[in-house]
């Protein structure tokens, strides 16, 4: 303990030095031959680690794309410039989980603290993207009296449409999905924008509302004392916030439950992310309430849910099943050593590194024996690919599930399974994640040797235990119901309304029969 201040000082100095070195490297130019080395390095790692690399693109076509990229690398580029050249090629693989990480500028703790005491420049709005256009659908702080439905035409004189076309090439859904881009792009647009243009204190935007153009200057404002107090309050972890998985940054819950009618006949569960945290308790308490209320209908809403824990969706499915089930097929990996390539010490502070070093032998032993071979292929041992019994509190009524293009990864796994087993009626639009699975699970976090761009590669082929569709698209709903921008602005929900109207008609029919 006597040496603690010295250790702390060394850690701070090391952190500052690391940030400075990172930012200098990010701003420096890399020679063409070194960039080509990075391209070859990335492809070699993909071929060694990715268990289904040519799912949506042939080897011949991918080889051609990599070779074409290298032919264009004939001048020095910064890591960020290189990223904008390389990422569209990675996106062409059509694996939604696979992408290079944006080489961002790093900030010191003091700089981060200063940002936390300010309101965001663009994050105070909610957005809607349609084709090459962006609209503001919510203005939380009433900035400049900007109305919902206002189109953002330019940012600092550059057309938003140019940015959208550029950034769309950086993202991909699984396969040939048609709905994912608009959802993911509205969430990631300003991540790309600030990486490219930096965090500025102001921006001039040109807008269009009901045929009238307007030029507005946005400013990064300091938070008031009440705002800072509210931030502190939002960070408190009450029991309710833990169980419902509260997210302070958005002042919302990842999980929520309620009855949609006075007689408790329609139960409604909303899951924004399968984070797993406190999920066992949430589902146990929720389905006990549904059982006690004897609700005949259940709606599960996984719209705009980008996925998460396989354990959580397996547990959720156990509350919907009426017989033993197996959620996913055995997960394939490329080799027996694949589980040892997961960067065990990644993002560890000096103290965490020391602790992890102590338990590393146990971790190594567990991972070394976590695979098995069958029919010439190697698979990773997982609990969720084994039969699971229905939960005692399982719901046996009618299930509806709401999905849209923002339903991705684990959300697509469980909805594909529910549809295959005819356990639910899916309502909405095609999911952003593939019907037949994806490559994710856990990752090997590679770093390109010259540009230092991080490149996480999914190591598990995760597929729902279903009859495969071979559609190379998302999970298609049983009932397609579209949602417009005006619906969102007016806080209307045509997809949920369709379900409620359908239930009302069923209840009316039963009522007539009883008369």
UniProtKB/TrEMBL annotation:
Q: Which GO terms describe its biological process?
A: proteolysis; signal transduction
Q: Name one GO molecular function term.
A: endopeptidase activity
Any single GO CC term annotated in Swiss-Prot or TrEMBL for this entry: outer membrane-bounded periplasmic space
Q: Which SUPFAM superfamilies match?
A: ClpP/crotonase (SSF52096)
Q: Which InterPro entries match?
A: ClpP/crotonase-like_dom_sf (IPR029045), Tail-specific_protease (IPR005151)
Residue spans making up a coiled coil are: none
Q: What is this protein called?
A: Peptidase S41
SMART domains, per the entry: TSPc
The source organism is Chryseobacterium flavum
The record's PANTHER family line, in alphabetical order, gives: CARBOXY-TERMINAL PROCESSING PROTEASE CTPA, TAIL-SPECIFIC PROTEASE
Q: Where is the Tail specific protease domain?
A: 227-482
- What Pfam families does the record point to? Peptidase_S41 (PF03572)
């Amino acid at each position: 303990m006597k040496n603690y201040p010295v250790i702390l000082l060394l850690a701070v100095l090391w952190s500052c030095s690391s940030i400075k070195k990172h930012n200098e490297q990010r701003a420096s130019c890399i020679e063409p031959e070194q960039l080509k080395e990075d391209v070859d390095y990335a492809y070699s790692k993909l071929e060694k680690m990715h268990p289904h690399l040519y799912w949506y693109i042939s080897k011949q076509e991918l080889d051609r794309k990599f070779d074409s990229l290298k032919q264009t690398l004939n001048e020095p580029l910064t890591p960020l410039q290189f990223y904008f050249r390389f990422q569209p090629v990675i996106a062409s693989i059509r694996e939604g989980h696979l992408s290079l990480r944006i080489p961002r500028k790093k900030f010191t703790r003091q700089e981060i603290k200063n940002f936390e005491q300010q309101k965001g420049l663009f994050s105070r709005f909610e957005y809607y993207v349609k084709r090459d256009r962006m609209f503001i659908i919510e203005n939380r702080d009433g900035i400049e009296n900007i109305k919902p439905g206002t189109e953002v035409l330019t940012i600092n004189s550059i057309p938003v449409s140019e940015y959208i076309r550029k950034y769309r090439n950086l993202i991909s859904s699984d396969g040939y999905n048609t709905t994912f881009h608009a959802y993911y792009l509205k969430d990631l647009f300003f991540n790309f924008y600030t990486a490219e243009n930096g965090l500025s204190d102001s921006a001039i935007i040109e807008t269009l509302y009901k045929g009238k153009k307007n030029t507005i200057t946005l400013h990064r404002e300091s938070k008031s004392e009440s705002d800072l107090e509210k931030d502190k309050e939002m960070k408190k972890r009450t029991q309710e916030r833990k169980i419902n998985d509260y997210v302070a940054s958005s002042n919302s819950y990842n999980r929520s439950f309620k009855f949609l009618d006075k007689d408790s006949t329609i139960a409604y569960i909303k899951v924004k992310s399968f984070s797993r945290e406190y999920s066992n308790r949430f589902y146990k308490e929720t389905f006990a309430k549904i059982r006690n209320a004897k609700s005949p209908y259940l709606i599960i809403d996984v719209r705009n849910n980008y996925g998460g824990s396989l354990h959580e969706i397996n547990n959720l499915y156990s509350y919907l099943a009426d017989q033993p089930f197996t959620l996913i097929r055995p997960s394939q990996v490329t080799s027996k050593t694949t589980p040892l390539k997961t960067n065990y010490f990644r993002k560890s502070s000096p103290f965490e590194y020391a602790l992890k070093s102590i338990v590393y032998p146990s971790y190594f032993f567990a991972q070394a024996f976590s695979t098995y071979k069958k029919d010439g292929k190697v698979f990773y041992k997982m609990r969720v690919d084994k039969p699971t019994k229905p939960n005692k509190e399982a719901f046996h009524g009618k299930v509806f599930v709401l999905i849209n293009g923002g339903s991705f990864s684990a959300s697509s796994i469980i909805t594909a399974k529910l549809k295959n087993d005819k356990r639910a009626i899916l309502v909405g639009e095609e999911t952003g994640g593939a019907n037949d699975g994806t490559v994710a699970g856990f990752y090997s976090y590679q770093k390109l040797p010259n540009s230092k761009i991080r490149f996480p590669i999914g190591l598990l082929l995760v597929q729902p235990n279903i009859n495969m569709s071979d559609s190379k698209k998302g999970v298609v709903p049983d009932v397609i119901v579209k949602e417009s921008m005006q619906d969102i602005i007016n806080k209307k929900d045509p997809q949920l309304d369709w379900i409620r109207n359908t239930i009302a008609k069923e209840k009316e029919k039963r009522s007539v029969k009883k008369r």
